[in-house]
Amino acid sequence: MYLGIDIGSSSSKAALINENKELVATDLINMGTGTKGPDETISNVLRLAKISRENIAFTVATGYGRVTFSGADSQITEISCHAKGVSFMMKGVRTIIDIGGQDAKVIKVGNDGKVKNFVMNEKCAAGTGRFLEVMARVLGCKIDELSDLADKSTTDISISSVCTVFAESEVISRLASGAAIEDVARGAHLSIAKRIVGMCSRVGYEPVIAMTGGVALNSNIVKVLSNELESSVITAPHTQAAGAIGAALFAYEKGI
Amino acid sequence: MENKITSKQMLGELLEKHYKSAIEAKANGKMVAWATSICPQELLETMDIDVVYPENHAAAIGARKCAPEFIEQSEGKGYSSDICSYARVNMGYADIQFSEAENIPMPDLLFCCSNICNTVIKWYENLAKNLGIPLIMFDMPFNHTYEVPEYSVKYMRSQIEYAIKKLEEITGKKFDFDNFAEVMKLSNETCEWWKKATDLAVNIPSPLKGFDMFNYMALIVCMRGKKEGKELYKLWYEELKEKSEKGIGPFRDQEEKYRVMWDGIACWPNLSVTYKTLKKYGINMVTSTYPESWNVRYETNDLDGMARAYSSNYANRNLEYDVQNVSKLVRDFKLDGIIYHSNRSCKLMDFRQYEVQRRVEEETGVPSVIFDGDQTDPRIFSEAQYETRIQALVEMMENNKKAGRDK
Lengths: 256, 407
Description:
The complex is a heterodimer of chains A (256) and B (407). Chain A has 256 residues and is α/β, with parallel strands linked by helices. Chain A has eight helices and ten strands. In chain A, strand 2 (12-17) and strand 3 form a beta hairpin. The longest helix of chain A has 23 residues, at 181-203. Chain B is built from 17 helices and eight strands. In chain B, the strands form two sheets. A four-stranded parallel β-sheet of chain B has the order 2-1-3-4, with helices on both faces. A four-stranded parallel β-sheet of chain B has the order 6-5-7-8, sandwiched between helices. In chain B, helix 1 (7-27) packs parallel to helix 9 and helix 3 packs across helix 5 (85-96). The chains are: A alpha/beta (256), B alpha/beta (407). Chains A and B meet through helix 2 and strand 8 of A and helix 16, strand 8 and helix 17 of B.
């Protein structure tokens, strides 16, 4: 078996690929680098596959915590791993939008599933999962409730601040002046989408566009993004584990 | 047996001499000027005015991790953190006037040429007002056409002539045109050796480590018009040539796996980590826009040529020039990739960086990455983000190499 582990800033993901290059199991723990998250997710995925550590022929680590993680045979960036993972699961993808906890990236992929070019967010939380966490807190809802909330929006509101801290105060003052929280939630999504559209344009996006990362679970954002890009955005299967699956595929190639 | 001095030793000694002699000159009542890095220093050299370069001084302070003190001083006075960090360090230094890293004497004269950026205009005007000293300003309009237009050459030439008169007024001395011719000749020779040395990096493997170029660069700024400068770059050239003829690469303990260009200024406070991360993956930075920046060449006594040369700095040239210039470096130096430093300080360089990246990629197909950093402000750079981008570049370069091998 071949193990891929994606250690992010706020979560850890693991995936197993067998000798026939089939996906056997994936797991996710909402604890990232510097916690026991990486070890736990590995234990979980091994349990799911009913195997032990000794059955792992090769391990590839990716994500922000890949450099400090000692349990891997090799480490590869999340950029290449997302491209690999998505291209394995979906055919014809040319552009990948990955929005994680602390970064957002747009990757242009070739026919071979290899990275042609990519753009990452600047050193700033705008357009990342962290931005949504802050917004959910201000709106008094859970992060996974944002999508349903935004779906009910009837009026367009734009959040103009790029800075997460400024956007937080902007949202507070909008709410204070009577804006509906549904509209503000959608406004926050639109703010992320606009940021991502800029990155897509820089990289020169082409369909098919797939989305990965935790934020892709927010179906309203996916909808808003599709609108803004005037092109359909498809949420990748195993969206949060796409990087780990890519890492497992690299492990398969390196180990076999 | 005669112990031959190496260029590295010579560089160290000359740098020390540069700063020490400026401080002594000031103490002895000699006139000291502060000048921008690519200005007609020939005029100051001719007039025997001692010159120090705030940009270099700020870089030295940054490299020795002493910048925060001066940045805080400037920001405390009300200068925005969005202003160039060289300017913030220097304006802070103008107040504090001491650094454990390196010291320069306070100026009697300011000499500013806007061919490198626009911030220098306000920065030097500010210094002139605060210090109550004369400022000679060379207004160097941006070249929106590919070639430098003739009216720009005329405009610049007239400013050189005006500066000569102003210098005569300020010093009370006559400008010596014979000496000027000598300085022009010498300055051109120094530039020639600088260019020849840095051009040796076209060889595979490159005998030159690009981060060494960042170090040697100090004196192409500070000693371009002095014979020691010429001797240094000639010696450096000879050493590199010998290395290259013997097939010796940049690293003692590993091979040069990938050859890249670095676009933009170094991250001086993070010099070591930015270098080591590249080396870890076998990357040698073989070139940048710097070799050409100080290739300020013209015929002796040709004032039009001199004007054109100063106006021709790449930062003052249009987008198409920048794209062609970088694309040419990709071909000449057989680059595998490009690293673009999105330098928070340098609005001029960042302004068109994304578009240059896009067009150069279109033109050459070579992969590239952009990372966030700053030339002297250590608060902007993130080591983990830098490494992820560099590693992703390596993965793209490796894919290309593999595709090349499979063909």
